[in-house]
Amino acid sequence: xxQIFDIRSGRGGSITIKWAVSIIGLLILSTSxxxxxxxxIPVHKSPAEIAGTMxxxxxxxxxxxxxxxxxxxxxWDDEKPVRNVTVPAFRLSKYEVTFAQWDxxxxxxxxxxxxxxxxxxxxxxxxxxxxxWGDVQSFMVWLNSKTGGNYRxxxxxxxxxxxxxxxxxxxxxxxxxxxxxxNCTNDHCGDSWDYKTAPVDSFPANAWGLHxxxxxxxxxxQDCWNYDYYDxxxxxxxxxxxx
Length: 243
Hints:
single chain, paralog of FGE (formylglycine-generating enzyme), 8 strands, 19% helix
């Protein structure tokens, strides 16, 4: 079984990381923003210890077949046509990779020494942002060297399958965006983060125990974009899927 990481944040904007074993991750909302931002910050831990704790933040995703793409008919053209895709079992980090974890990589001589900007929003347990796909690969090299694992990013199919968590609705919790269920802009979600990223585990997890699959930051996947990447006839959506 491959370990997977899911990164959410690119140098061009708020995309970050999540890991998958082919791994994903979440946090529980504290009574105040200040308390939440400081929660679970590694104190007096070595980079190796921080890397080791990440294994405890993964959940098992069962194998299955799902309808991948724009089920509502209101999405972009590249989300069509909807097709059946089969995904083998894998494990995914329940939280986005945090600044604390990325900074541990840099402090240990990894991640090519790249320290991404936090946009003035804070580091610690906020998801790391302004990292490219290539930056993420260097993080994986470091993580695997510290843990002896085989972590990677999830494929697009694995990511969507995990985000849906067995549902066919617009969001994993239903067709309405609701209130305080995700971090999104323009006060559409009723959250209180005011156009900033929220610390991981600030919102409820989906049915499979994964946090921030909606909202907060964009997330990288392992595979390259291809209009017809997931073959409609074979319907294979694992790490080795081919056009």
